[in-house]
Amino acid sequence: MKVNEVMVTEVASCSPQTSLQDVAMMMWNNDCGAIPMVDDQEHPLGIVTDRDIAMGAALQSRPLWELRAEDIASHRELFCCGPDEDINKALQLMEAREVRRLPVVNQFNQLCGMVSMGDIVSFTGAENVSKAGDKHISSKETMEFLKHVSGHHPSHKAAAAV
């Protein structure tokens, strides 16, 4: 199974200068928990998550309209995949890098979709055969992925305590 068979293709995005208040409203209006930050040519630069917004506002003690997407999303390394990549390879990348979402980029490195934990789960196991035809992701692989990505990570706790 390929990433393009699982990914979402209608993706809202923001610029580095977009206020976190506007990003939060994009999440609300698009029923999602992450918005990719892109440049003028639609090249992904980072991702703003709902958690980033909450922690950014709390740690900086500033209102959302004063904070920009670049204030919280440009300091982390961004991991992407291609639409023709095998979904298991994308899953392995997400697990290795402990990320819940991957921007999908085309041959010009432009945003063309997103693949998330939810997308992976919706194609897991035989119960979804009618949705995906005969294609599915093994339940065992998905459970290992979810355990790793969703679990508590000691490095994050230690960093927060400092």
TrEMBL record:
<dbReference type="InterPro" id="IPR051257">
    <property type="entry name" value="Diverse_CBS-Domain"/>
</dbReference>
<protein>
    <submittedName>
        <fullName>CBS domain-containing protein</fullName>
    </submittedName>
</protein>
<dbReference type="Pfam" id="PF00571">
    <property type="entry name" value="CBS"/>
</dbReference>
<keyword id="KW-0129">CBS domain</keyword>
<dbReference type="InterPro" id="IPR000644">
    <property type="entry name" value="CBS_dom"/>
</dbReference>
<feature type="domain" description="CBS">
    <location>
        <begin position="73"/>
        <end position="130"/>
    </location>
</feature>
<dbReference type="InterPro" id="IPR046342">
    <property type="entry name" value="CBS_dom_sf"/>
</dbReference>
<feature type="domain" description="CBS">
    <location>
        <begin position="7"/>
        <end position="64"/>
    </location>
</feature>
